[in-house]
């Protein structure tokens, strides 16, 4: 994938998408990604979230204004990983979306779909079997976005897919996936 890429919805949303490896993400962007994800600290410690965002395997797609490089709109952080399956002898090759975060002003304009589409292209290029992510059940907007707009389904290892309904209720998240 050649970068930067351009995403243009209209005159209001003229964006450039930059690709970064965790080791090349400028300190100002490290800070910004951390601040944008702060709302989920109820389940993560600050140090745990920082470690996840700066993991050596982390890759970023960062959306910014084409005219003003300091006007950041959102990012998608992913890793290429091996993920468990219901077959104990098999690990799936996966492009795992750890974060998709957009500033409020950039939501509902197709940018999230575009970034996820890029992740599917990356996964396909690297011969990953599927794109996966974890979503909290109480985040109805995210669940609707991933399942209705993007076409994700419960992964075979998701609590809602592999446990009885009574046991699955104890989990506050689901794992979604879609083939590349």
Mean pLDDT: 91
Give the uncertain stretches in residue-range form. Answer: none
CATH superfamily: Gcn5-related N-acetyltransferase (GNAT)
The end-to-end distance, rounded to whole angstroms, is 16 Å
The spatial strand order of the largest sheet comes to: 1-2-3-4-5-6-8-7
Structural class comes to alpha+beta
Protein name: N-alpha-acetyltransferase 40
Main location: cytoplasm
Family: Belongs to the acetyltransferase family. NAA40 subfamily.
GO cellular component, one term: cytoplasm
In short:
The protein has 180 residues and is an alpha+beta fold. It has 6 helices and 8 strands, in the order E-E-H-H-E-E-E-H-E-H-E-H-H-E.
Account of the 3D structure:
The protein has one domain (5-179): Gcn5-related N-acetyltransferase (GNAT) (Aminopeptidase), CATH 3.40.630.30. An eight-stranded mixed sheet has the order 1-2-3-4-5-6-8-7. A hairpin with a 6-residue loop joins strand 4 (72-84) and strand 5. The chain has helices at residues 27-36, 46-53, 111-125, 140-149, 159-162, 165-168, and strands at 5-10, 13-21, 59-65, 72-84, 91-102, 130-136, 153-154, 173-179. Helix content is 28%, strand content 35%. The protein has 180 residues and is an alpha+beta fold. The model has no long low-confidence stretch (mean pLDDT 91). It is built from six helices and eight strands, in the order ββααβββαβαβααβ. The longest helix has 15 residues, at 111-125. The radius of gyration is 16 Å and the shape is globular.
